Amino acid sequence: MYSYQFQWGVFMKKGQELIVDIVDVEYPGYGIGYFEDFKVKIKGAVTGQKVRAIIKKIRGNVIEADAVEIVKRAAYEREGICSSFGACGGCTYLNMDYAEQLKIKENMVKKLLDGAGITQYDFLGIQASPLEFSYRNKMEFTFGRDSAGSLTLGMHKRGRFFEVVNLDTCVLVDEDFIKILNCALEYAANNHLPYYDSRTHSGFLRHLVVRKAFKTGEILVNIVTTTQMNCDFDQFINAIKDIRLRGKIVGILHTYNDRLSDAVICERLEVLYGRDYIIEELLGLKFKISPFSFFQTNTYGAEALYNMARKFAGDLTDKIVFDLYCGTGTIGIIMAPKAKMVIGIELMEEAVKAAQENARFNRLSNCTFYTGDVAEVLTKINDKPDVVVVDPPRSGIGPKAINNIVKFGPDTIVYVSCNPQTLAADLRIFEDAGYKVKCVECMDMFPHTYHVETVARIQKEYN
Ligand code: SAH
């Protein structure tokens, strides 16, 4: 990385200002423009905008710059949806018409696949999120302060990690979340409870995590603090229980976390009221969500995504299905009623226990879940799969695990991906190993952000 670059007679340096016309968007959410002979990448900018930006990094002839002003808006931009847009780091594309957001995502994915030489597949387009707004079933709000020093509870300010913006409204969640947030903030302010300052590592209140099951209305409220103070939370519990909500509070939890990192980590959990889980339904099946287990954050979107995966898997009658990176077993369990047998593999023991419980809960006796690394565990399994479903984390599958999957020679592999960059790289490896990508479809699980979920059907080639 260089802080300056002299190229084709043009001298560019870090901190310098540029005005760039955005002509394209690339994953993960960079607006692309050109300045002299440099390619300029600006996070969050969109095609059609003219942006004033400051150079942050120069690498060869690629400049990364931060937008400071939108000099000219794109024709399809909209305004006035949320007063916090821009300052709040939650949404990137809220200023764009939803249909345009979908086009951008679809193109980002196609471009990445093209770049990896994956070209001969049917592209089935992108499905919109069933809900454009209020689609999130989980929010992690942060306690902090605003620029005037007052206690706040909301999202980190964009580009200013140490400031937190209050959220009076938020288009990503329903009104129950905001009512709970306001109640917690009022309680904290009235009781003069200090927020945790991640620079000095002192203070008490860190996060408020709210999870809501859309189908059952059950809500879990989890207040995350350090152990630097004692607090009985009686008043908090009563205040939360007294809020008039559309859903219902089934549990209020207190998580202790003294770790230095800003992530919500559970060092100890105390149930202050009710129980420590909620029940959600997907495609007619029931799933138990515990405070820290992974569950897709867009319930209706997850149904559409899992339906897509099930469609790509084809007829499952009498088939053996592997659900790799299975988390709490959602995908395998959704396929189990049709399949002969489902085998799930997952690294986190807690998730595997939840997967086993979810299978029992749905009276399915043909599912087995193993704990461990996919690449390792695969070497110990004797059953031969007909269909392999993979849903890896953002880092993708990688050559070792792909090699071990391919050794089984399954006819069909269904790849569910939350990161098209690693998807493209992994698909290349599958194609080089005798498989062909047959069709690809995208699913928008996160409207107003650059995230996109992609499902690919990969088929064994018999020559
Ligand atoms: N399919 C699930 C979860 C997908 S998230 C669902 O839709 O709910 C990806 C999962 O992969 C996480 O639960 C993570 O713990 C797990 N994981 C990450 N690396 C892994 C590895 N090397 N082996 C097995 N599981 C892994």
β content, as a range? Answer: 25-35%
If classified by CATH, what would the architecture of the largest domain be? 3-Layer(aba) Sandwich
How much helical structure, as a percent, in the residues? 10-25%
Number of domains: 3
Mean pLDDT: 94
Please give the number of β-strands. Answer: 25
**Number of H- or I-type helical stretches:** 9
End-to-end separation in angstroms reads: 47 Å
What's the story with the biggest beta sheet? 8 strands, mixed
Overall structural class, as computed from helix and strand content, comes to: alpha/beta
Bound ligand species: S-adenosyl-L-homocysteine
Which homologous superfamily in CATH is the superfamily of the largest domain? Vaccinia Virus protein VP39
Rg over CA atoms: 24 Å
Strand arrangement, major sheet: 9-24-25-23-22-19-20-21
CATH class of the largest domain: Alpha Beta
The stretches of 5 or more residues where confidence is low (pLDDT under 50) are none
What best-fitting shape do the alpha-carbon axes yield? globular
Pfam family, one: tRNA_U5-meth_tr
Keywords: Methyltransferase, S-adenosyl-L-methionine, Transferase
Protein name: 23S rRNA (Uracil-5-)-methyltransferase RumA
GO molecular function, one term: rRNA (uridine-C5-)-methyltransferase activity
